[in-house]
Design goal:
homodimer, alpha+beta, 60s Ribosomal Protein L30, Chain: A, 2 domains, 7-stranded mixed sheet
Chain lengths: 340, 340
């Protein structure tokens, strides 16, 4: 009866395709825009799911932070379309390992993030799960036709910009995983998290960058394309280049990387480079966007925005240029399932 | 570090609260409408998640049916608001147990249901899961202010109506579970599903009742309240009575129950009553609605719509009257987590 899973001949492993190629195969010919949100009837809509054991580890994730983060990363997709958040629907599946008080904590974080971004919690559902917790947040927002920003509008010579810094959330995750291993080896040990406050907050409590959205609006700058950096800079750049039909060139020395990120990397291994955290780490939820050259003067003086490169000819691949002037072609990470 | 889960003093088990009470506690004071969809800026939005091992069993769920059902049950919430479906976003989390071809099958069902209900597949995402598959479908729709139907509008003396029949999806599940046990005891056995085609289809491939929505519209009937029957008739009636601030009286002999449902119950156990399947079985995705007395003549001649009772004084509880004239108070089922 389980033959649909056991059938081997002609079986293609998901890992053989890249994640983007898989999504394109499954949605081929359906006119999916592939933006951070769906745009329909004046509304932006997006769904984000966090799965225990995959997207978060209860060993080191406070429930209030988890609730905050679940809402924040959904709202980040509204920000990435240059939109305004309106409301969220939250669906939580939990096993009976969780108490009502634990759910109260989770919802305290959900409410806090909603309040912070002037968004109403319009619906909540709680369901049974076989094990662990799964949180799905659907965020809805509005937009104006004049300023709606998709992934597909980048043009040759546009400037490539990003907000904040990159790789710090992943650095925070590395610290938490290190302390988890230490704790498991010796449960009497106390976690040593001093001096890592910035990277820990970046991982545990990300913020959607509506401050950047507002700053651009006040300056009268409408990005030509935009997305949020949820799976690393390389993935975000590839999305924009693929949807816009262009290449890009970004400069390694231009990538904004916090000193705590660099410090964590140097502690971990000499092979762990900060630039790898920025390119492939993910979970930063910063905005990556392109602007026309005419907006250069406005952009260059904005605090917290970094010009990291420019858009190139469609015939060229997306690349990063190192300080040694080596050109590295950016690639999507492989899709990896963790179940063996 | 795991103390937030192990903390015992003051711990309230989720099972101590009913599911509705839990949701009301978590969303207290937030102005959640508690309808089948969120209504915002002219758009209806709803999210439905199916979790492997909880909501479906790969032993007997063809992937194409699963994809169809995931979309159908999300669209059912749009129907329950008297709305028109526009598009869906699909998020699938899978482990590497699944092949690309398996996902092709799943998406064939997703596309089929979208086409059947003139709905576009506006976004798709595929993510890693630690084990098994989780499918989340967000459905968006439109509505007109004049015909939008919430759970909260039922008035005393309104007629309580439902579409189709009740309990048949649960009967289908019972048959599949019985054959699974037989197969596990003897893997050489062939499943014996002859004569159960109707209840199996009800469980494996439900349909959102837009035909009923259209029939009501053509007759010029706007229900005073509506919801879909996703967790059994009792749960649906309780939702309407709670949100409308009323009681209700439904008649057991009026409940529409298919003969296959009755037959499956009689095969299972003498204690398995068809009416229990209707009240508590769930997954029927029929529409439960109330209409004003003035619409009685229109409603009574509509095929596939059954008048099962009427709305009572707010001081009275929701009850079912048996053929022996016994009055049974309807209660919500307890929330049960399956993880021990």
């Amino acid at each position: 009866m389980d033959e649909q899973l056991q059938y081997q001949e002609g079986r293609t492993e998901i890992s053989q395709l890249g994640r983007l190629a898989l999504i394109e195969r499954l949605t081929d010919g359906l006119g999916c825009e592939g933006d951070d949100c769906v745009v329909t009837d004046g509304t932006l809509a997006t769904t984000q799911t966090l799965v225990e054991g995959v997207d978060f580890d209860m060993m080191y994730t406070p429930l209030k932070h988890l609730g905050y983060k679940a809402v924040a990363i959904a709202l980040s997709n509204i920000a990435a379309m240059n939109g305004t958040p309106r409301c969220v629907l939250v669906s939580v599946a939990v096993s009976n390992r969780y108490s009502v008080e634990a759910l109260d904590e989770l919802y305290a974080g959900i409410r806090l993030c909603c309040e912070r971004y002037d968004t109403s919690l319009a619906g909540g559902d709680t369901r049974t799960s076989r094990s662990g917790m799964t949180i799905t947040v659907t965020a809805l927002g509005t937009y104006s036709e004049e300023t709606l920003t998709r992934r597909s509008g980048a043009k040759e010579n546009d400037l490539v910009c990003c907000s904040g810094d990159l790789g710090s959330a992943y650095a925070g995750l590395l610290v938490l995983e290190r302390e988890k291993v230490t704790y498991q080896a010796n449960p009497d040990s106390q976690p040593d998290l001093a001096g890592y406050d910035y990277v820990l907050e970046r991982f545990l409590k990300p913020e959607p960058r509506f401050d950047i959205v507002h700053m651009l609006a006040e300056a009268g700058v409408v990005p030509t394309s935009m997305t949020d950096v949820s799976r690393g800079l390389a993935d975000a750049l590839l999305h924009i280049c693929r949807k816009s039909g262009c290449g890009c060139e970004v400069y390694e020395e231009r990538l904004p990387i916090d000193y705590q990120t660099a410090r964590v990397c140097s502690e971990m291994s000499k092979n762990m480079l900060p630039v790898s955290c920025a390119l492939n780490g993910g979970e930063d939820y910063e905005l990556l966007f392109t602007v026309a050259q005419k907006d250069y003067d406005k952009i260059k003086q904005m605090e917290g925005i970094h010009i990291i490169g420019y858009i190139t000819d469609p015939a060229l691949p997306p690349v990063m240029v190192t300080p040694q002037n080596t050109t590295i072609t950016l690639r999507a990470q492989a899709f990896q399932g963790v179940e063996q």
